[in-house]
Amino acid sequence: MELTSYGKFMVLSVLKGVGSILLDVEDVKSLFIDLLDRRNQYQSRHDFRQKILSTHEVQILCLLLEVLFSVPDCANISSETSEALLKALRIDGLYQEDPVVVMPCVTALQALQPVFFDVLKIHTKENVFASLISMFRTENTEIRNAARDALLRINVHASTAVKFIELIVAQDILFLKKDVIQRQCLVQPLFKILPKLLCEQWIGGIVYQYSIGDDASSVTPDVTNFMKEAQQLVLMILRDITDTLQSGHKDVLFNCGNVNLLINCIRSAKDLGTRNHGFSLIASLARAFPQLITESIEDLFVAIGDTIKQDDSHSQRILEDLLSVLVPCWLARTTSIEKLLQIFIKALSGVAEHRRLTLMVYLLRTLGEKNSMSTVVMCLLHSLVGRISHSPIHQGSHYALCLKAMPQEWEYELAVNITNQYSYKLWFHCLSKLLQEIRVHKNQNLLPMVHLAMQFILFKLQDTEMIFDLESEAAANSIQGSLGELMEEVVLCTVTVRDQRTDISGDALKELRDSTNTVLKITAGWMSASTYFNGISRLLEHSKSLVKRKALGILCETAKGNSLIERKQKKARKVNHSSPTTAPQLDKSSAPCFSELCFKILELVDREADSDNSVKIAAISSLETLAKEYPSDNPAYSKCLAKITNCISSSDTVTSSRLIHTAGSLINVLGSKALPQLPSIMKNMLQISHQVSFCPSGKYAHDSTKTDSKLSNQAISLLLSVLTTVEVIVKKLGEFVNPYLEEILDLVVLHQECASRTDEKLDAKAADVRTLLTEKVPVRLILSPLLNLYTGAAKCGEASLSLAFKMLATLVGTMDRLAVGTYHTKIYDHCLVALDLRRQRLDSFENIATVEQCIIHAITTLTMKLTEATFRPLFLRTLEWAEFEIDQSTTKRSIDRAIVFYKLVNTLAEKHRSLFTPYFKYLLEGSVQYLSEDDSLITSKQKKRAKIGDAKTEQKDRSLGPKLWNLRALVLKSLHKCFLYDNDQKILDSSNFQVLLKPIISQFVMEPSEHLVSVPDALSVEEVDETLVLCLGQMAVTARSDVLWKPLNHEVLMQTRTDKVRPKMLGLKVVRYMVQHLKEEYVVLLPETIPFLAELLEDVELPVKTLAQEIVKEMEALSGESLRQYL
């Protein structure tokens, strides 16, 4: 007995031949009783998935049963043997397929011989006979055949059978005798018997009477089996009678009470056979009397749900047959199948995974896959959300984490598996219906429901079969309608969630937003342009403003992903939700749908004033986006532009801004087709820009209602839109803007917001418009308006006037030879007039130098395009202008004009270099006078008319000092450039050298005025000193003769004998410049220079002494010998 089960079986098999003596061994007998008890215990367990006997143990039990019933002396059969026989014959309906139950029972039936049965006690015979009768109708074929053979072998006494005749003979006859006249009259009597058979008290009374004088524990199982058999037989007879009746039988044979009784019978029955017979009877009733079943249909499905865990093929077939007839009854009572599905889904939690799928697929097939699949999925998701939301495990978890965990639950997996049983052609259209049903319910768990639905849809959109098939155009066209419906429902669900959100976390909303955006991108990638545009059009017809705004936002986002211009059209679109998708592409076939969409959007633009302004703004922006991303000659754009133009003068600044911006985008697409609307556009734009912009001067200054120069953000946005649209108009219709040039120039030059750098973006856009005007508009059209802008610009200030001349310079730069020949005199004269602004001293200018720089730049740009023949007279006229005696009573020249003139000369010399050097012969006399004379340039007070107050006159007199300082600095800079570019010594010959030397040297001792700060553009002392050193140094380099160097060197050295530091430092710097640039050629000047350096080395001023030491070192390096002996 210490061996394994297999070892025991092998040993007992060898000893089997000894017969019943084997059971006399105490260990063998104990083993037999233990195995038999464990078998009965197994049948009594509810968790029958866990086996209590192994295969070898079952084989041992069968072997010992054979040994037990092979007793040669049948007269000595003990009570233990009889009890073992009854235990072996015991079977349960739930275990009729299990070898642990079947094999011992079949072994006992096969071993049961007449000689053995005859010697049994009467009571035992009755129990065995009852078991055989019960097994004779069992569903297991092996047990049924063995029971039949046993019944045929044994000898049954009449007294044994008489007790069973009273119970079953009538029922058996009724079941077998199918031609009984008026057999249906038995229905109600049988229903009267059925409650008693189900009543535990009635059964208990029978057991009590039957077991008087006997052991009740051994009698009860047998009687219970008899009752089960009787119940099943009644149900079988009733089903047999019902099956003979035709549907719609007029006689009232059944009533609601009968149906309710059957439902109670099913719910209270503990054995599988009774429940299955009850279900079969109800299925027959449903076929014959569907209206009768309909009244109790809900209770009936609850009963089905309670017993759905039965896991055998026969029960599965019965359940499927029952569902096939009950579901139509349910649908006849109500079109809603949600409660039906809730009952089933609730019961599925305890069912094995494979049976869940089988049951739900069959139920779905019965309900109709096409119409019911979306509801099935919704109910599964609803069950999941409800279970998770009430689960104590997840209540403390983060909401977003709970959402991420839901797709791992069995309800979600079941929904996926159900749809996987079908082709995408069936389930794809159900996706939109799923969202629609979720949206219509509007329960408190709307967000998680929509989130789960989006995750489910995203998973299904990755279906391999669908992606493969959609590469063909035919397959893609077959689901276009469903794609449009899906897009609409995604938008509507998103809006519904947004309407109902209360305390939802931002992470959860972000998760949902990301999911919906991904779904929309994927669907847009598969949709044809016509389907997409029609879907957006339907959404725009929705009553909710939020839906319209969402639809317009999606339209803009999708349109911005369009790449129609950059790449060829693709008929097949491969979509991956993690990668960018292809946007719908506009073609001829989709043009009507696109036009209809534009008109729908246009209706939103033309809404009443009291309507939602946000929708109007979104619609305007959408039109702009469509025009940018879908450029075409579609006639709808022309109609849109006309409507936009009429609405530009809106009272709302934001709306006007967007309208103007959109008008620009439409003009960019339409080109010359926008000409009919151009007058209205320009009129409305310029009118509204003058209302928000500050313009102190100009032609339209009186139209401005703005008094404060500070702009609001909305006003800046409006002006930016105006400038953007003007830019488009000039770019596309530059030849047609002549009637509006003055207004445009007024805006981009005179308006302070566009000229004074108040906003970076505004300034940049205005600069673009100004540049574009000079490039796109012909010179003959723009020149006169630009020159006429001078007076207004001068009143507006230096910023506006500077911009005007910058534009003029840019315009000159674009002129061809013919235009230069035609307009150069006019342009030069205009600039020459402007150069007199310094002398006029207008109050609107704080820094005249900035304006002068722009004017000089314009003149210089013009001179770069002139020939020698055209430039010379202009320059001589400019020189004459500079030396013209303003006040005829004084014969004095204007120092202001001289300053401006020499600024111009510096710039011309810098740009033209050696080409301009010959013109200095006209300037030498004037330059010497400006450097030499002081009193001749100062206007006498006595000979002036007192046009202003004495204080102001005195201030002007003091300012002459700084002006003269500034003028002399400019003269020195001009001479430096002259020397620098006079490579052929056309100017700096010996005579001119002598004329210029002393006036330049005289500047060493000239001191700046104490009012130097009063002239903003005046050069500082340091800058003048540097210019003076460069001028003299370059003068020496250009002279190229020691004959000219010696007087220059001598005059410079003589300036170091003064007591002032500045002349000493200037002299030393000039000497160092000459040493560094003349190099070895300066050696001839050393004898004269050394004595001066010796004096300077002993100077008390440290800077002078230091600089002198540095020069000595450089000279020593240059000469190659020490100069200490000469110092």
From TrEMBL:
Keywords: Nucleus. Residues 567-587 are annotated as: Disordered. Its main location: nucleus. It holds the Pfam family HEAT_HEATR1. It comes from the Eukaryota. Residues 577-587 have a biased composition (Polar residues). One of its GO terms (biological process) is maturation of SSU-rRNA from tricistronic rRNA transcript (SSU-rRNA, 5.8S rRNA, LSU-rRNA). GO terms for cellular component: 90S preribosome; small-subunit processome; t-UTP complex. InterPro entries: BP28_C_dom (IPR012954), HEAT_Utp10/HEAT1 (IPR056473), UTP10 (IPR040191). It is found in: Nucleus. GO terms for molecular function: snoRNA binding. SMART domains: BP28CT. Residues 817-986 form the BP28 C-terminal domain. This is BP28 C-terminal domain-containing protein.
